[in-house]
Each structure stands twice: as C-alpha cells, then as structure tokens.
Design goal:
CATH architecture: 3-Layer(aba) Sandwich
Helix content: 40-55%
Number of domains: 1
CATH class: Alpha Beta
Strand content: 15-25%
Strand order of the largest sheet: 1-3-2-4-5-6-7
Number of strands: 7
CATH superfamily: Alpha/Beta hydrolase fold, catalytic domain
Distance between the termini: 40 Å
CATH topology: Rossmann fold
Order of helices and strands: HHEEHHEHHEHEHHHHEHEH
Structural class: alpha/beta
Shape: globular
Number of helices: 13
Largest sheet: 7 strands, mixed
C-alpha cells in the first residue's frame, strides 16, 4: 500500500512555520479507531449525504466547527450530515493514515447506509482526501481539496519537467511513495475520475506551485483561486464560494 514517507513528512513546507508560533503542535498519538466527531443535519434522522471533513497537519476537527464550516453547511439547508475525522499528522508518521480513514471512517459510514459521501480536506487533509479517492473510488462521490499539499518540491519538479501529470505517469513506474503514486494515478485517470475532484486555493498559498500543477489536469470550472495565503481567512472564503455552487441535495 502506498504510504507517505517519514522523509516527506518532516519536509512538509508548512512544518517550520507552524512550529515557530506553536511548538506545542507536535504529532499527537495515533490511536485506533480514529476519533470522529459527528454533526447530523437533523437529530434522529440520517441525511442522504455525508460530508467528511479532514483537517490540516496541525489542525483539529473542532476547527471546522469553530471556523463555521459546519454551521454554514447546515445554514444553507443541505440535506447533509457532517463527520470530522481527527486525521492528524501522527497517522502520517506511523504510516496508517489511509488504513484508519478507510476502516474507521469510510467503511462504517457505508455500513450505516450513506450512499453519497463527499470528502472536504484542507492542506494535508486535501492530500488525504485525494489519496482516499484514489484507493476507494467507488465509495466516494467527490472531493473538495482546499489548499492541498500535493507533494514535496523535488517530486513537483520532476512532474513539471516531464510536462505534467500525464507525461510523468507515462515515464514513471508504479511507486510505493504515496505522493508519487497520486501523480501517477492523476496522469492515468479517466475524465470521469478527474471530474470528482475540485481544487480551491489561495493565489498566494505557499503550496501554490504544486496546486496549479495538479489543477492543470482538472476542468477549469473545478478550480478556483481567491486572493490569500495558506490560512483560515481564505479557506473560509473558498468554503462559502463552494457552498454557493455545491451539487448537494437540500431539504
């Protein structure tokens, strides 16, 4: 199974900046099962859609509540329950991120009766959402990747030098490294698979090089850039823009 390497984890572009102001945000213990916060649209009644939210490397699920992601989802009248998975960087460190997301979050949701499942991931959560779509395409209707981390700089340079995801996939064999495997999958994916992906980000995001390289493989109306850096103000603005056009049921 492709995994995020330990080397890649410690070279994530945001790691240094995060520790400058918040050295307490060291990797938390990865437990099994992965904790999940559930926020149903209506008490006692399951909605037809589940929106699974995946936080960034140094965020917690509660941030989606504190930043208004859940309340705005519900205020729009969508018939959608929310699940907030504690998919933190500790699971990257021990190599179980995708396994725990599948076994502790995605499969239980399917067993509970959800037939429409969307993933919303921010930063490292965006990478996790894309990787889970790669692994479990039949069980996921769509992905909104907000400011996603999509690979370490040297890998992005290789993809760009090859001429993009498709050309990179043509010259790169299968790879056990998750970041490389994702680019190979993107290059070999069908239009229907790519149409499940929406990429929203800030134009000044510190990860913009990789995001634009990834976005080049997507339909233009599946990509949105607003002014802003890798932080909550622009993520909130992007979330509001998404909610105005999301193809989700209401009522």
């Amino acid at each position: 199974m492709p995994v995020i390497s330990r080397r890649a984890c410690w070279t994530l572009p945001w790691a240094g900046a995060a520790c400058i102001g918040a050295c307490a945000w060291l990797p938390r213990k990865a437990v099994a099962p992965m904790p999940v916060i559930h926020r149903p649209a209506r008490a006692g009644r399951q909605a037809p859609l589940l929106v699974l939210m995946l936080p960034g490397a140094y965020s917690v699920p509660q941030d989606f509540i504190d930043q208004g992601f859940v309340s705005r989802l519900q205020a729009q009248g969508f018939a959608a329950d929310a699940a907030l998975a504690d998919a933190h960087i500790g699971y990257v460190e021990n190599g179980t991120l995708l396994e725990r997301l599948r076994d502790d979050v995605l499969l239980p949701a399917q067993r509970a009766g959800y037939r429409r499942i969307w993933l919303v991931g921010i930063s490292l959560g965006g990478l996790a959402a894309l990787a889970l779509l790669m692994r479990e395409p039949a069980g996921i209707e769509g992905v909104l990747a907000i400011a996603p981390y999509v690979g370490r700089p040297e890998l992005l340079q290789q993809v760009a030098a090859a001429g993009g995801a498709k050309a990179f996939a043509d010259i790169r064999p299968a790879d056990e490294d998750l970041e490389a495997a994702l680019w190979i999958w993107l290059g070999r994916s069908s239009p229907a698979q790519r149409d499940k992906i929406h990429l929203y980000t800030g134009g000044q995001d510190r990860l913009i090089t990789g995001q634009r390289l990834w976005a080049a493989s997507l339909a233009p109306d599946h990509v949105l850039e607003l002014s802003g850096d890798h932080d909550w103000p622009v993520w909130n603005a992007l979330w509001s823009r998404w909610l105005a056009r999301a193809p989700w049921p209401r009522g």
